Fold Aspartate carbamoyltransferase.
Amino acid sequence: MKWQRKDILAIEDMSVEEIRQILHTAKVMKEILMRPIKKLPTLKGKSVVNLFYEASTRTRTSFEMAGKVLGADTTSIAVAQSSVSKGESLYDTAKTIQAMRADLVILRHPSSGSANFLADILDAGVINAGDGQHEHPTQALLDIFTMEERLGAIEGKNVVIVGDVLHSRVARSNAWGLQKLGVNVTLVGPPTLLPVEMEGLGVKMSHNLDSALLGADVVMALRLQLERQKSGLFPSLREYSHLYGLTTERLKKTGKQSIVLHPGPMNRGVEISDDVADGVDSLIERQVTNGVAIRMALIYLLIGGASNVVA
Protein backbone atom coordinates (compact mmCIF):
# COMPACT_ATOMS: atom_id res chain seq x y z
CA MET A 1 0.00 0.00 0.00
CA LYS A 2 1.36 3.39 -0.99
CA TRP A 3 1.50 5.84 1.88
CA GLN A 4 -0.93 8.74 1.36
CA ARG A 5 -0.68 11.01 4.39
CA LYS A 6 1.37 14.20 4.57
CA ASP A 7 1.10 14.32 8.36
CA ILE A 8 0.82 12.11 11.45
CA LEU A 9 -1.46 14.04 13.80
CA ALA A 10 -3.61 11.51 15.65
CA ILE A 11 -4.40 7.82 16.02
CA GLU A 12 -8.12 8.57 16.19
CA ASP A 13 -8.49 9.10 12.43
CA MET A 14 -5.99 6.42 11.37
CA SER A 15 -7.14 3.23 9.66
CA VAL A 16 -6.12 -0.25 10.78
CA GLU A 17 -4.31 -0.64 7.43
CA GLU A 18 -2.25 2.50 8.10
CA ILE A 19 -1.37 1.34 11.61
CA ARG A 20 -0.34 -2.06 10.23
CA GLN A 21 1.84 -0.44 7.56
CA ILE A 22 3.61 1.65 10.19
CA LEU A 23 4.21 -1.40 12.41
CA HIS A 24 5.51 -3.44 9.45
CA THR A 25 7.86 -0.64 8.45
CA ALA A 26 9.05 -0.25 12.04
CA LYS A 27 9.98 -3.93 12.18
CA VAL A 28 12.34 -3.42 9.25
CA MET A 29 13.68 -0.23 10.78
CA LYS A 30 14.42 -1.98 14.09
CA GLU A 31 16.54 -4.54 12.23
CA ILE A 32 18.53 -1.64 10.79
CA LEU A 33 18.76 0.00 14.21
CA MET A 34 20.24 -3.15 15.76
CA ARG A 35 23.11 -3.29 13.25
CA PRO A 36 26.63 -2.39 14.45
CA ILE A 37 26.74 0.49 11.94
CA LYS A 38 23.47 2.40 12.04
CA LYS A 39 23.54 4.77 9.10
CA LEU A 40 21.62 4.81 5.84
CA PRO A 41 21.75 7.24 2.91
CA THR A 42 17.98 6.92 2.41
CA LEU A 43 17.06 10.50 3.34
CA LYS A 44 20.27 12.23 2.32
CA GLY A 45 19.44 15.82 1.41
CA LYS A 46 16.19 15.81 3.41
CA SER A 47 15.76 18.11 6.41
CA VAL A 48 13.88 17.39 9.63
CA VAL A 49 13.18 20.07 12.26
CA ASN A 50 12.37 19.20 15.90
CA LEU A 51 10.26 21.97 17.41
CA PHE A 52 9.63 21.20 21.09
CA TYR A 53 7.77 23.73 23.24
CA GLU A 54 7.75 21.28 26.18
CA ALA A 55 10.54 19.42 27.92
CA SER A 56 11.32 15.98 26.52
CA THR A 57 14.13 13.46 26.67
CA ARG A 58 12.91 10.24 25.06
CA THR A 59 10.69 11.62 22.32
CA ARG A 60 12.97 14.43 21.17
CA THR A 61 16.15 12.35 21.29
CA SER A 62 14.54 9.37 19.54
CA PHE A 63 13.25 11.59 16.72
CA GLU A 64 16.74 13.09 16.34
CA MET A 65 18.34 9.65 16.25
CA ALA A 66 15.69 8.31 13.86
CA GLY A 67 16.33 11.10 11.38
CA LYS A 68 20.09 10.75 11.59
CA VAL A 69 20.08 6.97 11.13
CA LEU A 70 18.09 7.49 7.94
CA GLY A 71 20.62 10.06 6.72
CA ALA A 72 18.49 13.21 7.11
CA ASP A 73 19.81 16.54 8.31
CA THR A 74 18.14 17.11 11.68
CA THR A 75 17.82 20.44 13.48
CA SER A 76 16.42 20.90 16.98
CA ILE A 77 15.06 24.30 17.92
CA ALA A 78 15.52 25.04 21.61
CA VAL A 79 12.38 27.10 22.17
CA ALA A 80 13.73 28.77 25.31
CA GLN A 81 16.66 30.15 23.27
CA SER A 82 14.59 30.97 20.16
CA SER A 83 12.47 33.95 19.18
CA VAL A 84 9.52 32.27 20.92
CA SER A 85 11.00 33.62 24.16
CA LYS A 86 10.59 37.10 22.60
CA GLY A 87 6.91 36.50 21.94
CA GLU A 88 6.98 35.02 18.43
CA SER A 89 3.74 33.15 17.65
CA LEU A 90 3.54 29.55 16.50
CA TYR A 91 2.24 30.88 13.16
CA ASP A 92 5.32 33.06 12.59
CA THR A 93 7.69 30.34 13.77
CA ALA A 94 6.01 27.97 11.29
CA LYS A 95 6.37 30.46 8.43
CA THR A 96 10.06 30.87 9.30
CA ILE A 97 10.58 27.10 9.16
CA GLN A 98 8.73 26.97 5.84
CA ALA A 99 11.02 29.65 4.43
CA MET A 100 13.99 27.45 5.36
CA ARG A 101 12.53 24.67 3.16
CA ALA A 102 12.27 21.97 5.83
CA ASP A 103 10.81 18.67 4.62
CA LEU A 104 9.37 17.54 7.95
CA VAL A 105 8.55 19.20 11.27
CA ILE A 106 8.18 17.33 14.57
CA LEU A 107 6.07 19.38 17.00
CA ARG A 108 5.47 19.09 20.72
CA HIS A 109 3.30 21.84 22.14
CA PRO A 110 1.23 22.44 25.31
CA SER A 111 -1.91 23.39 23.32
CA SER A 112 -4.28 20.71 22.02
CA GLY A 113 -4.75 21.09 18.27
CA SER A 114 -1.41 22.82 17.69
CA ALA A 115 -0.13 20.04 15.41
CA ASN A 116 -3.24 20.32 13.21
CA PHE A 117 -2.78 24.10 13.13
CA LEU A 118 0.83 23.70 11.98
CA ALA A 119 -0.07 21.06 9.37
CA ASP A 120 -2.62 23.41 7.80
CA ILE A 121 0.02 26.12 7.41
CA LEU A 122 3.03 24.12 6.23
CA ASP A 123 3.74 22.43 2.93
CA ALA A 124 6.14 20.22 4.90
CA GLY A 125 4.90 17.15 6.71
CA VAL A 126 4.11 17.43 10.42
CA ILE A 127 4.36 14.74 13.09
CA ASN A 128 2.56 15.32 16.36
CA ALA A 129 4.96 14.55 19.21
CA GLY A 130 2.31 15.45 21.78
CA ASP A 131 -0.21 18.31 21.73
CA GLY A 132 -1.59 19.35 25.09
CA GLN A 133 -3.93 16.72 26.53
CA HIS A 134 -5.07 15.64 23.06
CA GLU A 135 -2.87 12.91 21.53
CA HIS A 136 0.62 11.42 21.42
CA PRO A 137 0.29 9.10 18.40
CA THR A 138 3.91 7.97 18.15
CA GLN A 139 3.91 6.82 21.79
CA ALA A 140 0.80 4.70 21.21
CA LEU A 141 2.34 3.19 18.09
CA LEU A 142 5.55 2.22 19.91
CA ASP A 143 3.49 0.80 22.79
CA ILE A 144 1.48 -1.36 20.37
CA PHE A 145 4.68 -2.43 18.60
CA THR A 146 6.20 -3.43 21.95
CA MET A 147 3.11 -5.41 22.97
CA GLU A 148 3.03 -7.34 19.70
CA GLU A 149 6.75 -8.10 19.91
CA ARG A 150 6.19 -9.93 23.20
CA LEU A 151 2.61 -11.22 22.87
CA GLY A 152 2.19 -11.78 19.13
CA ALA A 153 -1.34 -11.00 17.95
CA ILE A 154 -3.00 -8.68 20.45
CA GLU A 155 -6.59 -8.92 19.27
CA GLY A 156 -8.73 -9.95 22.24
CA LYS A 157 -5.99 -9.17 24.78
CA ASN A 158 -6.70 -7.12 27.90
CA VAL A 159 -4.79 -3.90 28.56
CA VAL A 160 -5.11 -1.93 31.80
CA ILE A 161 -3.90 1.69 31.78
CA VAL A 162 -3.67 3.13 35.27
CA GLY A 163 -2.91 6.57 36.63
CA ASP A 164 -3.33 10.20 35.67
CA VAL A 165 -5.70 9.62 32.75
CA LEU A 166 -7.10 13.17 32.98
CA HIS A 167 -3.86 14.77 31.79
CA SER A 168 -2.63 11.88 29.63
CA ARG A 169 -2.47 12.22 25.85
CA VAL A 170 -0.75 8.81 25.94
CA ALA A 171 -3.88 7.20 27.41
CA ARG A 172 -6.08 8.78 24.74
CA SER A 173 -3.89 7.68 21.84
CA ASN A 174 -3.53 4.17 23.23
CA ALA A 175 -7.27 3.89 23.79
CA TRP A 176 -7.95 4.79 20.15
CA GLY A 177 -5.16 2.64 18.68
CA LEU A 178 -5.63 -0.48 20.78
CA GLN A 179 -9.38 -0.63 20.27
CA LYS A 180 -8.94 -0.34 16.50
CA LEU A 181 -6.87 -3.53 16.76
CA GLY A 182 -9.50 -5.38 18.80
CA VAL A 183 -7.92 -4.97 22.25
CA ASN A 184 -10.00 -4.63 25.42
CA VAL A 185 -8.91 -1.44 27.21
CA THR A 186 -9.64 -0.53 30.83
CA LEU A 187 -8.70 2.89 32.20
CA VAL A 188 -8.14 3.04 35.96
CA GLY A 189 -7.61 5.96 38.31
CA PRO A 190 -9.09 7.99 41.14
CA PRO A 191 -12.35 9.80 40.27
CA THR A 192 -10.56 13.15 40.07
CA LEU A 193 -8.09 11.82 37.46
CA LEU A 194 -10.50 9.70 35.40
CA PRO A 195 -12.86 12.06 33.54
CA VAL A 196 -16.33 10.81 32.70
CA GLU A 197 -15.94 11.91 29.06
CA MET A 198 -13.35 9.16 28.56
CA GLU A 199 -16.31 6.79 28.35
CA GLY A 200 -16.82 8.28 24.88
CA LEU A 201 -13.70 6.40 23.77
CA GLY A 202 -15.55 3.11 24.23
CA VAL A 203 -13.26 1.85 26.99
CA LYS A 204 -14.09 0.31 30.35
CA MET A 205 -13.44 2.52 33.35
CA SER A 206 -12.70 1.67 36.97
CA HIS A 207 -11.57 3.31 40.20
CA ASN A 208 -10.48 -0.03 41.69
CA LEU A 209 -7.11 -1.18 40.34
CA ASP A 210 -7.06 -4.50 42.19
CA SER A 211 -10.28 -5.71 40.57
CA ALA A 212 -9.42 -4.28 37.15
CA LEU A 213 -6.14 -6.21 37.03
CA LEU A 214 -7.80 -9.64 36.85
CA GLY A 215 -6.95 -11.18 33.48
CA ALA A 216 -4.79 -8.27 32.28
CA ASP A 217 -2.15 -9.19 29.68
CA VAL A 218 -0.58 -5.72 29.75
CA VAL A 219 -0.46 -3.18 32.57
CA MET A 220 0.63 0.34 31.72
CA ALA A 221 1.36 2.86 34.46
CA LEU A 222 1.00 6.54 33.60
CA ARG A 223 3.16 9.25 35.05
CA LEU A 224 1.50 11.42 37.67
CA GLN A 225 1.75 14.77 35.85
CA LEU A 226 2.13 17.04 38.84
CA GLU A 227 3.20 19.97 36.63
CA ARG A 228 -0.23 20.02 34.93
CA GLN A 229 -2.32 19.48 38.03
CA LYS A 230 -4.21 21.76 40.32
CA SER A 231 -4.01 20.95 44.02
CA GLY A 232 -6.55 18.74 45.71
CA LEU A 233 -6.92 16.05 43.03
CA PHE A 234 -5.92 13.41 45.56
CA PRO A 235 -5.07 13.54 49.30
CA SER A 236 -1.37 12.64 49.10
CA LEU A 237 1.25 10.86 47.02
CA ARG A 238 1.39 8.19 49.68
CA GLU A 239 -2.33 7.44 49.40
CA TYR A 240 -2.20 7.55 45.61
CA SER A 241 0.67 5.05 45.59
CA HIS A 242 -1.16 2.80 48.04
CA LEU A 243 -4.27 2.63 45.84
CA TYR A 244 -2.83 2.87 42.32
CA GLY A 245 0.90 2.14 42.45
CA LEU A 246 2.20 -0.96 40.65
CA THR A 247 3.98 -3.38 42.97
CA THR A 248 5.07 -6.98 42.53
CA GLU A 249 2.40 -8.14 44.96
CA ARG A 250 -0.35 -6.18 43.21
CA LEU A 251 0.60 -7.50 39.76
CA LYS A 252 -0.04 -11.06 40.96
CA LYS A 253 -3.74 -10.15 40.85
CA THR A 254 -3.67 -10.41 37.04
CA GLY A 255 -3.33 -14.19 37.34
CA LYS A 256 -0.91 -14.08 34.40
CA GLN A 257 2.69 -13.20 33.64
CA SER A 258 1.62 -9.74 32.52
CA ILE A 259 3.98 -7.33 30.82
CA VAL A 260 4.53 -3.87 32.29
CA LEU A 261 4.85 -0.65 30.30
CA HIS A 262 5.41 3.00 31.21
CA PRO A 263 5.75 5.94 28.79
CA GLY A 264 8.31 7.63 31.05
CA PRO A 265 9.66 9.49 32.80
CA MET A 266 8.82 7.41 35.86
CA ASN A 267 8.06 8.62 39.37
CA ARG A 268 9.58 5.60 41.09
CA GLY A 269 7.92 4.71 44.33
CA VAL A 270 4.74 6.58 43.32
CA GLU A 271 3.10 5.01 40.27
CA ILE A 272 5.58 2.13 40.02
CA SER A 273 7.95 0.40 42.43
CA ASP A 274 11.61 -0.21 41.66
CA ASP A 275 11.22 -3.99 41.57
CA VAL A 276 8.43 -3.75 38.99
CA ALA A 277 10.19 -1.10 36.86
CA ASP A 278 13.37 -3.17 36.76
CA GLY A 279 11.73 -6.61 36.75
CA VAL A 280 11.80 -9.31 34.09
CA ASP A 281 8.29 -8.47 32.85
CA SER A 282 9.06 -4.78 32.45
CA LEU A 283 9.49 -3.73 28.82
CA ILE A 284 10.11 -0.09 29.64
CA GLU A 285 13.63 0.00 28.17
CA ARG A 286 12.43 -1.86 25.10
CA GLN A 287 9.77 0.82 24.63
CA VAL A 288 12.58 3.37 24.29
CA THR A 289 14.39 1.30 21.64
CA ASN A 290 11.14 0.69 19.79
CA GLY A 291 10.40 4.40 19.93
CA VAL A 292 13.36 5.01 17.63
CA ALA A 293 12.19 2.28 15.24
CA ILE A 294 8.62 3.64 15.09
CA ARG A 295 9.84 7.18 14.51
CA MET A 296 12.23 5.98 11.80
CA ALA A 297 9.26 4.30 10.13
CA LEU A 298 7.14 7.45 10.24
CA ILE A 299 9.89 9.73 8.97
CA TYR A 300 10.58 7.27 6.16
CA LEU A 301 6.92 6.93 5.20
CA LEU A 302 6.36 10.68 5.13
CA ILE A 303 9.48 11.83 3.24
CA GLY A 304 11.22 8.62 2.18
CA GLY A 305 10.57 8.69 -1.54
CA ALA A 306 8.05 7.82 -4.20
CA SER A 307 7.07 4.26 -3.31
CA ASN A 308 7.09 4.43 0.52
CA VAL A 309 7.21 0.65 0.59
CA VAL A 310 9.67 -1.37 2.63
CA ALA A 311 10.05 -5.03 1.66
Q: What stands out?
A: The two ends are 11 Å apart (CA to CA).
